[in-house]
Amino acid sequence: MQEKNFAFFPGCVLSQAAKESKMSLEAIAPILGLKLHEIKGWSCCGASQAQDVDPIATLVANARNIALSEAMNMPMLTTCSTCMLTLTRAKDSLDKGAKNRINEFLAKGNMKYQGSNEITSLLWVLYENLDTLKSKVIKPLSNLNVALFYGCHSIRPEKAYNKKESSTNPKSFEAVVSALGANIVPFEKRLDCCGFHASYPAEKSVKKMSSQIVGNADKNGADCLVTPCPLCQMQLDIYQERYQDAMKSKIRKPIIHLSQLVGLALGLGNKELGLDLNIIDATKLI
Amino acid sequence: MKIIIDRFDGVKKYIQAYILDINEVKGKTLLALLQHIKRTQDISLNFTSACRMAICGACGVRVNGHSYLACDTKMDDLLAEYDYPDTFRISPLANFKVLSDLVVDWEPSIENLRKVKPTITAKDEFSEKNGCTQTQEEVDTIKKQWDCILCGCCASECNKLEADSSDYMQPFVYTHAFRAAYDSRSKDSLKHLKPAINNGLWNCVHCQECADRCPKGISAADDISNLRVLAMKKGLKKGTGPAHAEAFLLDLENTGRLNEIYLALRSEGVLANTTKIDIAYNLMKAGKMNPLHIFGDDKIEGHEDLIKMIKAARAANKE
User: Fold this and answer.
1) Are A19 and B288 in contact (CB under 8 A)?
2) Angle, nearest 10°, between helix axes A230-238 and B277-285?
3) A-B C-beta contacts closer than 8 Å
4) Is the CB of B234 inside 8 Å of chain A's CB atoms?
5) DSSP secondary structure code for residue A278 in this structure
C-alpha cells in the first residue's frame, strides 16, 4: 500500500478505557503504511447520547470535527463505530441541506464545513487494502479460533453508510481476519448488540445480552472474541466477570480489538499492542 | 433448493424441510414462494397475508434470522443477499408469541399501541368551520411515520425486546407515539410522550436493527431519539437514561471531551456507583481510568470557539 495519510479521530474512549486500542492502532499503522495525524482540538461526538438532549449542539460539534479534518486535506479515520456512525450521519445531514445553516454557527470560530472529505473506519481501510495486509502478515494466526463480533454501529443502519455493506450478511470483518490467517468459528451472535449504550438505564437486559454473546462464542469453540468497535470491547471485557457472575456463568473469554489482532499477525508483542491492559487476560492467546 | 420452515402445531415446535427446484424459487416473491409450498406441497402450512402490495403488514416473517415483509421481498434479491445458498430457513417473527407455524399473536402489541394513545385530540383553535390544517413542513415532520403498516419487522429483530420485553415496547409503538406527539395539530403531546417514557423509552439499546428491517424505511430508533429530545425539552428528566445522556452534553460543554468518572457519577449518582467500585478499581489498575480526573480535565484546543458555535446554534434554534 502506498503511504496513506489520515486525519485521525480517536474518540473519547481511545484516550481512556480503551487506550490499548489506540496503542495497537498506532503500532500497526506504520507497518501498514497508514500515517495517522490526530486532529487537534477534536471534541466528543456525543456518542449517540448527547443527540437525545440537544441535537443542534451535537450537530454543530460534529460539523466542527469534520471541518477540522477537512482543513488537514485528508480523509477522516476513526476506529470507534459509534463515532463513525455519528460523524457519518452528521456529514449526511450537512450535505443534504443543513450545511449553510450550520456554517453560520461555525463562522463564530472562523470555521467552515465544505463537505470535501471522506469518513472511514479502520475496518474498511483494511478491507479495501487486503493485499497489503496479507503481504505484511508474518505470523499467521492459524492456531487461533476467533469469534467475530461486528458491533451494531459498524454496519447499521445500512442507509447511513450508503449501503456500503449488507447488515444482514456483512463480509468485511471476515475478509480482514481471514487475511490474518485466523480460524473464524461459527458465531450466531456476531451481528447482535452488546447493549453498551443502555448499560445504565437497562442494566438487567444488557447483562443478559453481553453474557449471551460471550457464552455463544465459547459454545462455538472460540479462544477469544474480536471486535472492530472499542465500545463493544469495553462492554464485553470490563464488565465480563460481573455480568457472567450475574448470569451464573463461569465462562471467561478475552475480548480483543481488531487492531490488536492485526498486530499479533504482524508479529508485534503483547506490550506493544496493550494486550496486557485488557481486563480479561489476553496475553496468552498465541 | 431446500426451504426449512419452523413449524408449530399449537403444542409442539418442529422444523420441516421442503425441496424445490431452483426455478420454483427464482422470479417469485417470498410470499409467492410460501403460497407455492402451501399449494403444491403442504396444505397444512400456516402463514398470514392479505394485500400482497406492502400496505397491510400481514406477512412479516424471518429469513435466515432477519425479518422481511414477504410480499415485498423478491427471492432473487434474497438469493443474492445470502450468496446463492442451497438452503433458506423461514421462521415466524421473533419477539412475538407464535400461534401456529408462521402466524404470531398481535394482541400484546396492540395493547402497547393503546398505551401511547396514537390518535390525537385537536387543538382548540381548530374547528369544524375553519378546519384543522398543517403547513407542509409540519406534515413532513410526521409523514414518514404514517407509512408504518404494523408488520412487526422492527420488533422481530429488536435486541432489547429479545433480552427483556417487560420494560420495553415494540419499536413501532414508539414510532406511533412520535407521530402523535410531534403532530402540530395535537392539543397535548404529553398524552403520547408520557406513556412512552413510562414504558421504556430510555431503554433502547441503539442496535439500529429496527431502522434496517423496516420495509418502509422508517427508523424507530430515530423516533425514539426524537421523543427523548421532546422529553428533555418538556423537563421530563427523571431517571438514569436522561441523566446519562445529559452527562455527555455537559462534558462536551465543559471541556469538549468525555470524563469517565463524571459520566458514571452523573448517570447514577454516588451511592449507586459504590456498587461498581470493582470495575473502577480494575480500570485504574490497568491504567485505563485516571483518578485525578475527578478534579476535571483540560479543555480541548478551540473549546472557547466550540462554545460560541453551540451558543449561536441554540439562540438561532429558539428564534
Assistant:
1) yes
2) 120
3) 220
4) no
5) S
Residue B298 at interface with chain A, using a CB cutoff of 8 Å: no
For B240-287, the pLDDT digits (tens) are 999 999 999 999 999 999 998 888 888 888 888 888 888 888 888 888
Nearest alpha carbon to residue A125 among A267, A268, A8? A8
Set of chain B residues whose Cβ sits within 8 Å of the Cβ of A41: 256, 300-303
Interface contact A60, partner B, CB < 8 A: yes
Residue A50 contacts B where some CB pair is shorter than 8 Å: yes
- DSSP output for B39-87: HHT-TT-------SSSSS-TTEEEETTEEEEGGG-BHHHHHHHTTS-SE
Contacts of B252 in chain A (CB under 8 A): 43-44, 46, 50, 57-58, 61
Task: Give the one of B65, B83, B289 whose C-beta lies nearest to A16's C-beta.
Answer: B289
The phi and psi torsions of A284 (rounded to 5 degrees) equal -110, 25
Q: Chain B contacts of A209, Cβ < 8 Å? A: 159, 162-163, 205
| C-alpha cell of residue A39 | 486532529
Which are the contacts of A108, defined by CB distance < 8 A and separation ≥ 6?
Answer: B305, B308, B309, B311, B312
- Among B61, B91, B74, which residue's Cα sits nearest to residue B151? B61
Residue A216 near chain B (CB below 8 Å)? no
Shortest Cα–Cα distance, A85 to chain B (Å): 11
Task: Give pLDDT tens digits for B218-229.
Answer: 999 999 999 999
φ, ψ of residue A119 to 5 degrees: the values are -115, 130
Contact B59, B104 (CB under 8 A): no
Q: What is the CA radius of gyration of chain B?
A: 24
CA B223 to chain centre: 8
Cβ B152 vs Cβ B109: under 8 Å: yes
C-alpha cell at B48: 398470514
ipTM of this complex prediction, to 2 decimal places? 0.96
Helix (H, G, I), strand (E, B) or coil at B151: coil
